[in-house]
Write a structure and sequence with these properties.
CATH class of the largest domain: Alpha Beta
Strand content: 15-25%
CATH architecture of the largest domain: 3-Layer(aba) Sandwich
Number of domains: 3
Structural class: alpha/beta
Length: 575
Amino acid sequence: MPYKSSYPGVYIEEIPGGVHTINGVSTGVAAFIGYTAKGPANKAVQISGWRDYESTFGGINKDSPVSYAVQQFFLNGGINACVVRVIGKPHRKTPSGAEVTGKYEAKTGMYALRDVDIFNILAIPQTTVLNDAEARKVIANAIEFCEAKRAFYLVDYEPTRDFTTIVAWVSGLGSQKNAAVFFPRVLVADPTESSGQKEIPVSGTIAGLFIRTDQKRGIWKAPAGKEADLRGITGPSLNLSKSESTALNRLGINCLSVLPRVGTVCWGARTMAGADKLASEWKYIPIRRLALFIEESISRGTQWVVFEPNGEPLWAKIRLNAGAFMHDLWAKEAFQGTTERDAYFVKCDKGTTTQNDIDTGIVNILVGFAPVKPVEFVIIKIQQITGNIAPYKEAKTASWDDLVLPEAPRHKLAEIAAAVRQLLEVKKTRGRGSRISTGQGITALFTGAGGTGKTKAAGVLANELHLDLYRIDLSQVISKYIGETEKNLSRLFDAAERGGAILFFDEADALFGKRGEVKDSHDRYANIETNYLLQRMEDYRGLAILATNNKEDLDPAFLRRLRFVVNFSRPGVYR
């Protein structure tokens, strides 16, 4: 607040700069999943060196492909790793494909990584000892999980694959921009083997090379070439000719080559979408990983926009912060272009955020960059939910006289208002900033056809209780990516709890379908998202309302968790 000058003198006032620095996320965390001799099962354990692995998981074990992979990771430049131990049932020594994948809700197997804040590279060497059908299922799930987590997957394959069979096998996995295959496998010294060496999956070796290259040159440098030597190995399991390597490279399979006076090196840097005939913009690993790095950094660095007014002042701050982040990358030679204008752009204005976006609480940030190779812009669109969805301005003038409703729904609304008053009185009595007990939030469902007054009724409650009303379009909050819907909802509730507003979730049909019967993974994830929203509503320190046009489409199991249900029916003409 400005000082009021009452006498001559010098007055000093600190003015917030409005700068929210975007820091680049770490790119040096690799996750490994597989069987180990000991250690906590189905738990993601952070380690920072081979000694940590030995003390926690028991060191090298001939039945544990992941043990060799982790050792290779640190030998080749890895710094931080996250290991998930997966074990089989008592009658089996090693896990099945289903046990490696695990269960999303229980956070077992691969999904134990849900508890990890960030990982950039995923390796599952355990797939090499599964049968082909199981391995393909694990790989498909891992690719989907990596896309949701903005991570990159290094695919391993069974040891029987050679030059004549690897192409068909990789093609069967499809075009994948967040995954890559390196061929062949590698040989390492192993005194437990009669030959003195053992053939192992290559993912751990390549993961370490990725981190080493990131540290020396940056994530935008391809982890390939003469300086991409592979350490701690005795050589590749197969010696490919130059023509064979070239043929595989054109199909999106990266090869290992042996160079005189250099040794074994990585001689390819393409994603599984990198075949020449596909002409994908995500052909190269460094470009894809750089894009994932930018997406994750800007997404995390713009969390502060939630519940900010969605207009030019906000857009200007976003352009300033994101632009500074991109400028720093350009200065480090991450992009092409001799000038900033040629290297990247950041747009956040009326051109990217339409009036409809503003009305539904969305701000769009458009970021483009010219990768070092190829010479073309790659466009990334990032969305954040903002606070311009609230307050709902019409709530300030809404009154009971505006509602044309039968006695039953009007009485129910009065009950809701009384319950909220009681809750507010409890909070006031306990003191400012105190929390109510878990599960004591007030939840309600407003159901009826469009135009019957559901939003108007929420506005009347807000005006009656002297609270702000936040209107959220659920169809804009839900995401197809695993875990993103929960993140969006978490940001909304965390921001709203600071002000104690009424939350009005419109278009509930987008999430609350009849999902009680789980038919596939999409239903399973939808149930998780639905339960998460209901739990947050029940724990919210105030009133949270769901609105739907079709009550019959909502699962009865979900309806039972809502404290109040108000039915709106026509005629609903407001004066």
